[in-house]
Amino acid sequence: MTAGLMKAAWYDAQGAARDVLRVGELPVPEPAPGEVRVRVEASGIHVGDIGKRQGYWGSTMAFPRVVPHGDGVGVIDAVGNGVATERIGERVWVFLAQSYRPGGTAAEYTVVPSGHAVVLPGVVDSAQAAGLGIPGITGHRAVTAGGDVAGSNVLVTGATGAVGRAAVAVARRAGATVLATVRRESEREVALKLGAHHAFMSGPSLKDQIVDAVGPDAIDVVADLAFDRTIDLAAEVLRYNGSVATYATGETRPAVPYWQLAFKNVAVRFISNDDFPEEANQLAARDLTAALVAGDLRYDVRAEYSLEDIAAAHEDVEQGSGASRVILRVA
């Protein structure tokens, strides 16, 4: 490989994976002040990465060329001014590599702010941490945005998905009673193994199942996967001054049971991973790393692809289940 160049994947326009994704050589990035450069080992792919490339949600390209993916694992090999040289050689997981930045982790090297490269103990396999950032930090925020949940009842919808798994682990480790919803009977046992105290099938009897488990009006926090399908249930099972933190919806303009929520003084938070307060990101990074090390948070990895096969990897994410992850092996 030519000196000063790296192997990378990129796109210059939004569109279908095989139409716009390219693999070749790009200049190796240099860390700016406060940044570190990471030699990438593995890159995680999230539905948000697919959305940016396809132009979901009305998104446009903020940069003429984008190296995709926000999450990854690697080793710091260079630091910018203001960063301790002792960081060189650290094994890290990175997050927000491609948020408001053109260069993500689908390349041999990426640069991120030093605080977005989190020390990863050797006991954690790189595949477990490569896709942690977007879903993990989102799940953490969905549980903790309203404060400490110790002693609370937390309802996690879509508990076996990438975000749901993190929400279950965070809530359980924080001392909450965790109630999980799943879409298939086979997923109930999975949710319980992930740490939920109770797991229920979504359906007409869901409210009754929740009431049987913890009583009426007893949920403190709902960490929600599908606002349009969950908000009516949340209005029924939340206690007074409870809260909903939602990170996705099917219907973009869903109906809302306003008075039911208002009479209970329910707080509804709409959360998006790119724009959490940095303090929340750092708290999540600490807690998620600890959960990985303890084995309380684990992801099922269904496929690993080489960088050259990034288009196939993106198609796999588009067609596959959110309950398991797809990893791009870069080095």
UniProtKB/TrEMBL annotation:
State the source organism's domain of life: Bacteria
Q: Name one Pfam family in it.
A: ADH_N
- Per UniProt, which keywords does this protein have? NADP
- Chain ranges of the Enoyl reductase (ER) domain: 16-328
Q: Which SMART domains match?
A: PKS_ER (SM00829)
Query: Which Gene3D superfamilies does the record match to this protein?
Result: Medium-chain alcohol dehydrogenases, catalytic domain (3.90.180.10), NAD(P)-binding Rossmann-like Domain (3.40.50.720)
InterPro entries given in the database record: ADH-like_C, ADH-like_N, ER, GroES-like_sf, NAD(P)-bd_dom_sf, Zinc-ADH_QOR/CCCR
Q: Tell me the PANTHER family matching this sequence.
A: QUINONE OXIDOREDUCTASE
Protein name, UniProt field: NADPH:quinone reductase
Taxonomic classification: Bacteria, Bacillati, Actinomycetota, Actinomycetes, Propionibacteriales
